[in-house]
């Protein structure tokens, strides 16, 4: 089909006149006029939002401004606005670079005005949004410090004892904080597994606590983020803090006795209340220290215990002899006053052994019984026995059963037995001493005294005497002994031999024996006795009294013991009947000490030192041997060397106490003299002196000895050949050769650096002079140890005994000369983190310097301060934030610390050594980085919504995205994590009424780095009959406490069914579906609107028509600003584009209408022709008037008018304008064309607004948002009929509306010639 015939087959609906294909020719003059003007530059449609990383450095490329000029004019760029402070733009290229550092945490969204100019037209300005992308430039910060807690020691394993919290102002993984325990103090193996930490920062007890092991613990906790990009590298930030844990003791242990075992003693009979001992128990729960009471477990004991102090005392009188055992065993229980944590009594027991010691409080007693059967109940004091007179000695008295007993113990139970009374001498007792218990016998001691003729009965007193008890010592028993008589007695001396003694040199008449008498029981003359000495030579020396029997010295000159020491004589006793008896007198001449001891020999001894000396002093005494007069004793007379020897007092053997030491002898010859006194034991004592001379020969037996145990010297470094010090040694040997000393250094590390020489100071005294080798240089700073540890050897060089060596430690300290510059170690230059907003004033860090010189005084200096934001220079904003004190303390000293202004402060510092003696006194300049950490203080910010959202309910299924919102939060971590929610949905109907809805839309949140997108989706089926716009209120809320929220309201225009258009095709449904994309593209090309196909179905019409339609396509034609085309508007636009019309006809399009199409009548065709001619005439007149006006306007106004004319020529003069509010029949101006309010793509610009453009989406169901025009609310008011005057507004309105003069014209006052 040819193009000239196309109009014959394209029909319109009855509601509007048909438009012929030649109508667009009327606009040709306008198109020609528009082509001759110059247009302003146009920004690329993508220039609405850009993204810039916050760690971008100053001078680096940020983003590119892009604009174009349709006329090819040279364009220039510029930027303005408050946020342009951060950027520079290249006016020619549009390349934007960073001028000042960015900080997302302080300002995540920037807005600048970008301007482009071609130098001809007015500048074009657009608002550009810049989103600052986050980087991991913040470390986690612990909150609510310090961390301290107290934990009961019986806390259940697995319990959470504390929760720490740290947050990170970054976003994404860089804001996710994880925790770990780095160290447990005290650092023991058991403590390592005592705790673990959960991901939320909760510290959990992993094993049981024990107060006796740990009373206080500290955990070093590390918080680190999940890592993120920083300057194109993945960086993990971390920080540490300490959790202090005090372990609280609980009563879970029994008390414990101290100093076990316990034992004590107390004497019997002691006063009640006497202290025996004190037991002490302590509560092992030292943190509880409960009160302890004491008690006895065993009852009926003669002791008491103080329940508070634990002192055991005597509670009743003690009698050891009445106790079952002298050892009393006490069981003591210690109880705590309170129950333990298990509800039990906390107690402990111990045994106390008390020994009741014996006191001599019992005297011995006598009992009449045998020892084996005696019960010791009844004592006895009278006993009777018998014996034959003159019985021999040791014969016991018969018929006596005597047992003696003392119940005391040991020595207290020991007692003596003896006899008293007139007859006591005739008898003796056996035994004379008894310990405890024993049988007692009375024995004959003097048979002659046991004489019946003297007495028939003899009585003795048996005494038992306890010598240890003077107050109640004795018991007495009377023993009666009956004598049995014998026949005939001769005079008889009591002794057959009398041993007498007389002192030599005694004078004459000296009584030797006073009464030596014989006994004769006979009476009368037969009982009278006379005495005489029988030998004549004895009678010359001695004599006897014939009556008394007394023996005397007759001539004392004969008495000399040394001449004769013994005389024997017979003494005769003769009674009156000449009955005789004799006795032997043995007279011993007693020695008188009249002779001095006599020394035998002389004593000169020679010995080498180191040997012992032994000798015996020999002497005699002529006095009587075996007597004190001749018994000799030996002693050393006190003298110079007397203490070096001992002598046997009896034998005279003298020994040296230790080997002799020549060095201890003062004599030059080595002689020592010891004087020994030899004495007898007579009275008066006589003695003789003798000298023992000992010569000691010297032996080299002494090794050198240093005068000090160690020496310590100090020298300065670099002092070659200097004197170090003297070491002194002595040798005690007495000869010069044996006492000679030489010094040398023992080979060791550093010994080769020194020299030593020997000097004799005197006998046995030498000095070792130690000096530094002149060829050796000592550098203090290169030495690992600042000293030399030397060993000096002192050797005795005696020829016969060389090799005796002594050693001494010599410590040589190397003193530093201050010649090294100080340094600041890298460990002290680690980055410091400080929170913004003055939350961390005061000391934040301490810089430490190192100076290898020992004597130094270091002072820190701050040389310069550099402020950075995101790695770029931030000027001088931070110069007064921090102060570095001379001692290295770094103080936060400003209330203006602001992370948003500066996130990094770099201090250039150095340290000065005030004591420097030579060399450089300053360290190298170092940089200390201080990182400012952010605080969560920002609410989410919505990005501007620059488009209009439209929804076609009929073809909007559930989950269809109908709008989007974007927001960002300057905070990081959970504080910057945004969750969208729909707060309310309200439909604003065409009459202004508002109708709320629930669950009509939903929002799905997604994240792209720091930007969050909320996808507004259909949640339930929409009502396609509703007209108006949905006002959807969306809230963006962050996820950290305290939460911040921001709301925004979206307008979603709804297109109702009244805008559904039917397109009839001569092709089948299948062919239409196969050609759908081509059809859609053709319709979009003609209308610049989104084509929404709701259905394609077959069409059956029995009416006769010129063409037979086989299928129908139902569709909506919607612009991105919410306006839609009706049938008339669609028909006009298709007719206005002949190529598109031809293409659609080739694809089978025949009819456009909302319903069925009927064949028009000839009358209606004529009316259409006449109306077309009338409209052409009116349009021609208006064009002529408009051309005249534009001619007298400026070049720029002409250009605008021609563009409007160009757009106007695309419209048919008979088109009725559609709705201005989407989905309604409300117009911007009654019968005004809503198409005039569109913002079109520049390639299809109708010229009604120079700065507004819009593109209709080819697939608007996928993307339903476009840029909104800056002026989208055009006000219209009803106009008057077209007047005859030539005002600009009327002419332009007529040109735009293209109305017939006879009809009412409605103009859109939103446009006038001034706008054009």
From TrEMBL:
Membrane-spanning ranges: 1166-1192
A biological process term (GO) from this entry: homophilic cell adhesion via plasma membrane adhesion molecules
Domain Cadherin, first and last residues per copy: 44-142, 143-257, 258-366, 379-493, 494-599, 599-706, 707-824, 826-942, 952-1065
Top-level taxonomic group: Eukaryota
Record field: compositional bias (Basic and acidic residues): 1262-1275
Localization annotation: Cell membrane
Alphabetical UniProt keywords: Calcium, Cell adhesion, Cell membrane, Membrane, Phosphoprotein, Repeat, Signal, Transmembrane, Transmembrane helix
GO molecular function: calcium ion binding
GO CC entries: plasma membrane
Gene3D superfamilies recorded: Cadherins
Secretion signal span: 1-37
Pfam families membership: Cadherin
SMART domains: CA
Membrane topology: Single-pass type I membrane protein
Region of interest (Disordered), residue spans: 1259-1288
Chief place where the protein resides: membrane
Protein's recorded name: Cadherin related family member 2
Lineage: Eukaryota, Metazoa, Chordata, Craniata, Vertebrata
